[in-house]
Amino acid sequence: MSYLIKKDHKTNTITYMEYELEGYKFKPRNNTKIKINQITIINPDMIDKILTIKFSQMFKKLTSFVMQILCDNTDSDDSNTMYALAEIDRLKSIIINKYNKIAREKQQFFLAQLVSLENQLKMKKMISMQFDNMLYDQEEENYNRGR
Questions:
Q1: How far apart are the first and last CA of the chain?
Q2: SS3 sequence, 16-46?
Q3: Which CB contacts under 8 angstroms, 24+ apart, belong to 22-26?
Q4: Whether the Cβ atoms of residue 21 and residue 38 lie closer than 8 Å to each other
Q5: Is the CB of residue 106 less than 8 Å from the CB of residue 51?
Q6: Burial class (CB in 10 A: 0-12, 13-18, 19+), 55
Q7: Are the beta carbons of 28 and 36 closer than 8 angstroms?
Q8: What are the structural domain ranges in the chain?
Q9: How confident is the model at residue 89 (pLDDT cuts 50, 70, 90)?
């Protein structure tokens, strides 16, 4: 059973009606006296703000991790690079599957940011692979000159 709850500010009354509505659905975390299983938001501006906040939180964590990888010059960051690329793919799939029907413009903006991060990581990985190949070739050349 779902309800649409509206508050009339002129008369300070709350009305509710039973509806099935399309919009952004989520489960609230805060437990109050009223048990709420699911909330559906139908206001496009509010949906846009909520999705921006949720994506910004995930994107900040991912950006800090990616920056740490890009600034680190050790050889042990291949696994971290692969993990970061997997996280970027996971966020892309969330945006494409979950936010597709709701916010088309924001989806393109979020995906562009993720593609930018992905390209930076791929460039770092390609540079490190070329450097490793160059070192391997030098070692092989030195080994062949030995006798």
A1: 84
A2: EEECCCCCEEECCCCCCCCCCCCEEECCHHH
A3: 22/101, 23/47, 23/102, 24/50, 24/51, 24/102
A4: no
A5: yes
A6: buried
A7: yes
A8: 1-42, 43-145
A9: very high
Burial (0-12, 13-18, 19+ Cβ within 10 Å), 117: buried
**Amino acid letter for position 62:** L
Please name the residues in contact with 51: beta carbons below 8 A apart, sequence gap of 6 or more: 24, 99, 102, 103, 106
pTM of the complete model: 0.65
| pLDDT tens string 10-21 | 776 656 666 677
Q: For residue 59, what are the contacts with CB-CB under 8 A and spacing of at least 6? A: 91, 110, 113, 114
Cβ atoms of residues 70 and 120 within 8 Å:
yes
The one-letter amino acid code at 5 reads: I
CA-CA distance, 111 to 92, in Å (whole number)? 6
